[in-house]
DNA sequence: TTATCTTTGTGATATATATCACATTACCAT
DNA sequence: ATGGTAATGTGATATATATCACAAAGATAA
């Protein structure tokens, strides 16, 4: 919470290593326009990148780091919709509804993002069908993934939900069997829709059963087969 | 289950009364192309329009009637993702993943649909940015609605969930306080993620409290304020 | 007609999980 | 140091809801 975002005015999207699939459909002149309307910023772990209810004046592209997309409407408990990986746009789904963001975004690790002017972004979609096609594609896939996760969560018990979450981090986010969980136990509970205590207890059970080993937030999968089975049967 | 879909080979999308927002961005020549690649069909209540796992060879446009979008993966219970209103495309989100539909679609009322060739549809998206923009917009809004419903469901108790569902039909689907529920109690349970028995009991409570009156599947809201309050607090 | 199946309501019981309570540890600021 | 706050683990209890069991009503078929 101590560092102010560090803005760079000039960016060069043509030479950017972190370009999105969609931006690869842009012409040279479109990329120039993008560069002129694109500002980079950094956030530290824990910082809020975008708050629910804020104006959708810019599209945010996540170059580096992990972000949680979460809601916290009114009196309700926080709910983490998903953990967003690099090379995705944040909150695309909000730009067509009203003019406000429907979810909040916070950095789970140090993060680099680009702010892209919404008008320029919309112009690309309207005038470059292939760009729109890529954006549409990513929104659709995102939706499908989230729908599946939601339904799974609804139908599984805590052991299944936790197995899912661990597998999600191991396979989708990190691609390794040993990783540092970027969430507190409380946040993990918000992600899988249970209570902190239940998460703690279920982790203890998995450890006792030698399915995983845990050292603080470092998790190692010891028995992938059993974990996947729990996820299926859960 | 007794009527075979009744296919019409010729259609005229230019003069269609049920045209989607997106199709209104199409040029005359594009509309002609659409007409040539568009077949109408009818389904009776209860018939399956599209099954999970089937090939996404066509896009289906819902002209008339109500459809349930549901999943039923493997051993799991059925889960109704949403009730789809007329003038929407069915299963748009599935066309970019693999080549299969991820959810099933069944008619809740008599239904009229149009099958649109997927290649033609994709061509419109890629070549007509405004068409893509409209499609993207509808996918985004759909996603947001579903995300909100999911989170609400996770955090509310049965009374709140049922209140939500009744308000959803009254306000969004029918626009009246008195309507015929197009779902059985069992399906209603699948929609809000509980058991049939719990739905029955909660309905009885609402009736006893004079919040709604019920005659079979006909529902009338007697006390809108209290119902909305239960939905909020639930 | 009778028989079978589906839908629905409702009471009794079982159970998973939330909640409460408390202890421990670590981290930060003064 | 030292006090305060946040994160975590774990046992006891409360509770919402699923599950089971059964009855009644309608629909459908023989």
From TrEMBL, chains A, B:
GO terms for molecular function: DNA binding; DNA-binding transcription factor activity. Keywords: DNA-binding, Transcription, Transcription regulation. This is CRP-like cAMP-binding protein. Residues 22-125 form the Cyclic nucleotide-binding domain. GO terms for cellular component: cytosol. Residues 156-225 form the HTH crp-type domain. It comes from the Bacteria. PANTHER family: CRP FAMILY TRANSCRIPTIONAL REGULATORY PROTEIN (PTHR24567), REGULATORY PROTEIN YEIL (PTHR24567:SF26). Gene3D superfamilies: Jelly Rolls, Winged helix-like DNA-binding domain superfamily/Winged helix DNA-binding domain. It comes from Marinifilum flexuosum. PROSITE patterns: CNMP_BINDING_3 (PS50042), HTH_CRP_2 (PS51063).
């Amino acid at each position: 919470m101590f560092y102010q975002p560090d803005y760079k005015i000039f960016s060069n999207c043509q030479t950017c290593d972190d370009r999105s699939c969609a931006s690869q459909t842009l012409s040279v002149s479109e990329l120039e326009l993008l560069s002129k309307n694109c500002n980079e910023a950094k956030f530290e772990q824990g910082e809020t990148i975008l708050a629910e209810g804020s104006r959708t004046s810019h599209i945010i592209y996540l170059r580096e780091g992990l972000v949680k997309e979460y809601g916290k409407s009114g009196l309700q408990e926080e709910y983490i919709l998903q953990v967003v990986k690099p090379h995705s746009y944040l909150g695309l789904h909000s730009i067509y509804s009203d003019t406000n963001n429907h979810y909040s975004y916070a950095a789970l690790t140090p993060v680099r993002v680009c702010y892209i002017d919404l008008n320029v972004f919309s112009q690309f979609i309207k005038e470059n069908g292939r760009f729109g096609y890529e954006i549409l594609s990513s929104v659709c896939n995102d939706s499908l993934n989230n729908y599946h996760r939601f339904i799974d969560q609804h139908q599984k018990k805590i052991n299944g939900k936790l197995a899912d979450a661990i597998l999600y981090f191991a396979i989708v986010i990190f691609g390794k069997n040993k990783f540092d969980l970027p969430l507190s136990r409380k946040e993990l509970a918000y992600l899988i829709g249970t209570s902190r205590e239940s998460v703690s207890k279920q982790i203890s059970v998995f450890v006792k059963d030698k399915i995983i080993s845990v050292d603080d937030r470092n998790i190692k999968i010891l028995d992938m087969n059993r974990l996947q089975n729990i996820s299926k049967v859960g």
